[in-house]
Amino acid sequence: MLTRKQHELLTFIHNYLREHGVSPSFDEMKLALGLKSKSGIHRLITGLEERGFLRRLPHRARALEVVKLPENVSLHAAGAPVAALHPAGGNDNGTVPGNAPGGENVALPLYGRIAAGTPIEALRDESNHIDVPASLLGNGEYYALEIAGDSMIEAGIFDGDLVVIERCDTAPNGTIVVALIDGQEATLKRLRKKGKSIALEAANPAYETRIFGPDRVTVQGRLVTLIRQYH
């Protein structure tokens, strides 16, 4: 039996994972639950771990996995950040039909490693696909990328991770997006808009926030979830 605060936190983490593909920060959890200190969040997470509802992934910042939800809540995409990988062929454009059963997998094109100086279209390789549970996706067009580098580690995104991206050309403030700079350089960063300026924020203090004019940055998709392989 969960306490009210444990139930609130578990539901918040589950919904956040489904929307953003990464775990919320302790500050975000603290604000969501109206707590005054992070120590309360630590205690709640420990309690959820002990009861088998939550699992902390070792050696990973902001990496929580929802193992199960209370019986009155549907699990759907619990454990979304750590989905299983199976090479497959299939739907090349990554479009998910609206009536795809939640238990089925969808084959998404894997475009390769996202790195500075490489537009997304230049990465396209129709021969590589990954299978992703349809329950993680909505009605849209999706593709996958392999992360190169450590610029987003504090968002729980590490070198070698695979990220699932929904194609779009706009995104709300604070969304992690694939951004194309000057038509040449593709990067995965958090989007911030202020006036006519666009800032691309890394999630690693070793990297500076980059600020551009609106005509220099094009959004090519938003992060939906990430997939990590353990060997």
How does this model look, in words?
- It is a single chain.
- By secondary structure, the protein is an alpha+beta fold.
- The chain is built from four helices and eleven strands; from the N terminus they run H-H-H-E-E-E-H-E-E-E-E-E-E-E-E.
- The strands form two sheets. The protein has a nine-stranded mixed sheet with strand order 4-3-5-6-11-7-8-9-10. The chain has a two-stranded antiparallel sheet with strand order 1-2.
- Strand 1 (54-56) and strand 2 form a beta hairpin.
- Helix 1 (4-20) packs across helix 3 (38-50) and helix 2 (26-33) packs across helix 3.
Summarize this structure as a short list of keywords or feature phrases:
single chain, 231 residues, alpha+beta, nine-stranded mixed sheet, two-stranded antiparallel ribbon, 18% helix, 29% strand
| Share of residues in strands | 25-35%
Distance between the termini: 34 Å
Choose one word for the global shape: globular
Number of helical segments with 4 or more residues: 4
Main beta sheet, described?
Answer: 9 strands, mixed
**From N to C, what is the helix and strand string?**
HHHEEEHEEEEEEEE
* Helix share bin: 10-25%
Structural class: alpha+beta
Mean pLDDT: 76
Rg? 18 Å
Query: How is the largest sheet built, in terms of strand order?
Result: 4-3-5-6-11-7-8-9-10
List segments where confidence is low: pLDDT < 50 over at least 5 consecutive residues.
Answer: 72-102
Number of strands: 11
